[in-house]
Amino acid sequence: MVAVDVTDATFQQEVVERSKEVPVVIDLWAPWCGPCRTLGPIIEKVVADTRGKVALCKVNVDENPGISQAFRVQSIPAVFAVKDGQVVDTFIGALPEHQVKEFVSKLAPVVSEAEELLDNGDEESLRKAHELEPDSDKVAARLGEFLFTTGRDEEAEALLAKYPETQEIMRVKSMIRLGLPELSKPAVDVIAELNELLESVKKDEAARQRFVDILNAYPFDEETVARYRRLLTSRLF
């Protein structure tokens, strides 16, 4: 269930403390309120589409007067967004779905169907995501990486050749050039190779390409990548 029913007693934990981890949307409602019944399913659906990036709490104002008084609620439905224990946005009344999406998207982007398919990670899902968003370099890179890791380098290269050299695309192209055996090397060996390649990058184009591919493809931390990019620049210029 997406929504958590919050009471005066659980408000501090479920809303204030939780909002320090993810934004929390609070829906103040009552069983007798017609607009509340209209808004309820809409806001639950929109928050569910964030896939955990936003939490939803519902408060029955008849049973929890303390929360109503704290928010100075005069009419319902009343919706509040809370981040880090502070109210950051609010609206009153039963808004249509597109406006509720706008409200929630300020807290966390709503996940698209293609992004949901990427999370699945299987080939059918990745190809479907590519059909839905053929211009997305992120989707193409994920599909290309899948093809590469399943031994279809040529198909992956043909796919990636259609896209601009964004960071995601370059990462997968670098993975393909290096190959799976190289990518399985221990990090200490990779660092040693980078240090060795530095001696040749100025005059040897192949060494320079391999150096860049290693930085693109290996899961180094940002500090390591930045340090070696600076070293590369200092050797080239």
Could you explain how this protein is built, in words?
It is a single chain. Helices cover 55% and strands 12% of the residues. It has helices spanning 11-17, 34-48, 65-70, 97-105, 113-120, 123-132, 137-149, 153-160, 167-178, 180-183, 187-197, 205-217, 222-236, and strands at 3-5, 24-29, 55-60, 78-83, 86-92. α7 (137-149) packs antiparallel against α8 and α12 runs antiparallel to α13. α2 links the parallel β2 and β3 (55-60). It starts with a strand and ends with a helix. The chain is α/β, with parallel strands linked by helices and 237 residues long. It contains 13 helices and five strands. The longest helix has 15 residues, at 34-48. The radius of gyration is 25 Å and the shape is elongated. It has a five-stranded mixed beta sheet, with helices on both faces.
Q: Treating each run of at least 4 consecutive H or I residues as one helix, how many helices?
A: 13
- Shape descriptor reads elongated
Low-confidence spans: none
> Kindly state the mean pLDDT as a whole number?
92
Which sequence of SSEs, written as H and E, runs from N to C?
EHEHEHEEHHHHHHHHHH
Strand content: 5-15%
Radius of gyration: 25 Å
* Derived structural class: alpha/beta
Main sheet attributes: strand count, strand direction, barrel closure: 5 strands, mixed
What level of helicity do the residues show?
A: 55-70%
Instruction: Give the distance, in angstroms, between the N- and C-terminal Cα atoms.
Output: 58 Å
Enumerate the strands of the largest sheet in spatial order, edge to edge or round the barrel.
Answer: 1-3-2-4-5
Question: What is the tally of beta strands?
Answer: 5
